[in-house]
Structures are given as structure tokens and as C-alpha cells.
Design a protein that fits this description.
By secondary structure, the protein is of the alpha/beta class. The chain has 2 domains: 1-49; 55-288, Rossmann fold (3-Layer(aba) Sandwich). It has helices spanning 2-16, 20-47, 75-80, 88-95, 113-121, 134-146, 161-165, 183-186, 214-223, 231-239, 266-273, and strands at residues 103-107, 126-130, 153-156, 173-177, 199-203, 243-249, 282-288. Strands 3-2-1-4-5-7-6 form a 7-stranded mixed sheet, sandwiched between helices. Helix 5 (113-121) links the parallel strand 1 (103-107) and strand 2.
């Protein structure tokens, strides 16, 4: 009887999945379920003393987040130390390079993870952080306060090429840019000349998919309008003379490196560590070429 009921239910679900509206509803329901599960796991880990408000590992170890009521994107990932872990090797290399960065410019700063984290790594640098969304901007200000950086961090809202070009960044700026495709406008040395002397960490929002037919790729891009066709090629062309460009792809979290996961089931790990990104895309580390440095 149970087997018959299961088969009937399976056919009913498959029938409704033929309709895009029902499919989108299930995607939304799965996302909301994941958020609820994340909240329950985080509460349990807090009660056990395994999850607090201080970053536990990675280049920003020791950075502090404010009370849980303050909005922070990917708080668990940031506190546990594996947020954007692909970039850790680059950040640690920059920290050990001996470069005296005169400024840190973070565009798309969200709650200040990179702005404050890099500000702590490079205490002599002035920090400029741009965040357009109101709730994220307020979190950015609060995170800078609890880390004692209010006097060094200049927070702004909307960033334009004109606003960027007007910054007094000194002779050795470090830029982190994650702006959901708007890098097509901002990362242009013709509009912002000092970018030619900057070290730049840039999230490149494009759907790589080199083997997909053009029509399928275009359909996916229409569903995710922040993806810009050939963005990587455009950026490489703009900076081909002034910079050496390295690339890494976003990927799955190496859970064996983070002890907190040993206390969780695989389902719980998936809820906490599975990426919400829509596709694999690259980060660029762009360093001024020796002849340009």
C-alpha cells in the first residue's frame, strides 16, 4: 500500500513539474527550508559553544562580528573562516608581500568582511567601502565600529566611475570588487586612471560554459541578468598591458579543513556550506606588471 501511494505521489509531482510555476515554487520552498535548517543548526552550535562572533581561521582570523541581530550575509561561513576560501592564498600572499598598501577600496562591501578584514591586515591603509543597499550599509558601519575601525573607514553608498576616480587612494591601492556585473562599468582604467597602479581582486560575473550551445547559454543568462557575456575577456583586454592577471574558479568548500563540520551530519553540512551561486565563475587577481609598478 505504501509503495502504491509513493508511486502515485511521484507521478503527481512529476506532472506538476512540467509547469515552470510549480518548479519555481519548489526551488523557493527548498531555499526557505535550507534557511530554516541553517538557523536551527547555528542556534545549536551556539549553545554548544562551537559558534560565536569571532572569525576562527583564515586571513581575517580574530575579526569580530556584532550581535546576531545585526544582518550579516553568510555569517556562519565568515565566522568559521571558509567564506570565499579560494581567495585565502592570494590574500595571505599579499599580506606577506611587504607591500605598503596606502588604501583599501572595497566596492560591493556588504557587511564589511573584506573592507574591515583587509583594514586589519594593513593597519596603515585608509579604507574606502561602498555599499548601495541600506541594510548592508548599516551592517558595514556596525562591523567597522566593533572592530575599532570607525576612524579609518570611509563608508559610501552608490559607487560610480566618477566617485571612484575622485578617491585619494595614494600610490599603492588595493581594490576588492564584487558588484554583480557592474564591474563592466567600474573596472575601466580609461575612466578610473589610478586602477592602472592598483592591485585588484575582482569577482568576474560571467557564465563560462564553454561547451554549451549559444542558445542554452543565452537562456541561462536571461534568468540571471547580473551575468555579463565575455566579461573576463573584456577585463583582460582592458588590463592586458598594465597588469599580470591570475584566475581561480569558485568551488566546493574543503570541509575536512574546518573542525566545526565534524560535529554535523552530511545533510547539515550541505545546508551550511553549499553555495547559493548560480554557476561557476572566476575571480581575478590583477597585479601591476613589473614595468608598470
Amino acid at each position: 500500500m505504501k509503495e502504491l501511494a509513493r508511486r502515485i505521489l511521484e507521478r503527481v509531482v512529476r506532472f506538476f513539474l512540467l509547469f515552470s510555476v510549480f518548479d519555481r515554487f519548489l526551488v523557493f520552498a527548498a531555499y526557505e527550508r535550507k534557511r530554516i535548517l541553517r538557523g536551527k543548526i547555528e542556534q545549536r552550535l551556539r549553545r554548544l559553544g562551537l559558534y560565536g562572533d569571532t572569525v576562527q581561521s583564515g586571513p581575517f582570523e580574530g575579526m569580530v562580528y556584532p550581535e546576531p541581530e545585526v544582518w550579516v550575509s553568510c555569517r556562519f561561513e565568515k565566522v568559521s573562516g571558509f567564506y570565499e576560501f579560494e581567495l585565502h592564498q592570494w590574500i595571505e600572499r599579499l599580506a606577506g608581500s611587504g607591500k605598503a598598501f596606502t588604501s583599501v577600496v572595497n566596492i560591493g562591501a556588504a557587511d564589511g568582511y573584506f573592507a574591515v578584514g583587509l583594514g586589519r591586515l594593513f593597519p596603515e591603509a585608509r579604507v574606502f567601502a561602498f555599499e548601495a543597499a541600506e541594510n548592508r550599509y548599516q551592517s558595514l558601519v556596525r562591523v567597522s565600529e566593533v572592530n575599532g575601525m570607525s576612524n579609518r573607514l570611509v563608508a559610501g553608498r552608490w559607487c560610480s566611475p566618477e566617485a571612484l576616480a575622485a578617491l585619494d587612494v595614494g600610490d599603492c591601492p588595493l581594490v576588492v570588487c564584487d558588484v554583480d556585473g557592474f564591474e563592466d562599468v567600474l573596472m575601466d582604467p580609461a575612466l578610473v586612471p589610478w586602477l592602472q597602479e592598483a592591485v585588484i581582486l575582482l569577482e568576474v560575473h560571467e557564465f563560462l560554459a564553454p561547451d554549451l550551445p549559444g542558445a542554452e547559454k543565452e537562456a541561462f543568462e536571461k534568468q540571471h541578468p547580473f551575468l555579463v557575456r565575455d566579461m573576463g575577456r573584456k577585463i583582460r583586454e582592458r588590463f592586458r598591458i598594465s597588469h599580470v592577471i591570475e584566475e581561480c574558479l569558485v568551488g566546493a568548500v574543503p570541509i575536512d579543513r574546518y573542525p566545526v563540520f565534524r560535529n554535523l551530519s552530511m545533510g547539515e553540512i550541505a545546508a551550511l556550506a553549499e553555495s547559493d551561486r548560480c554557476c561557476i565563475h572566476p575571480w581575478f587577481l590583477m597585479t601591476p606588471a613589473p614595468t608598470n609598478a
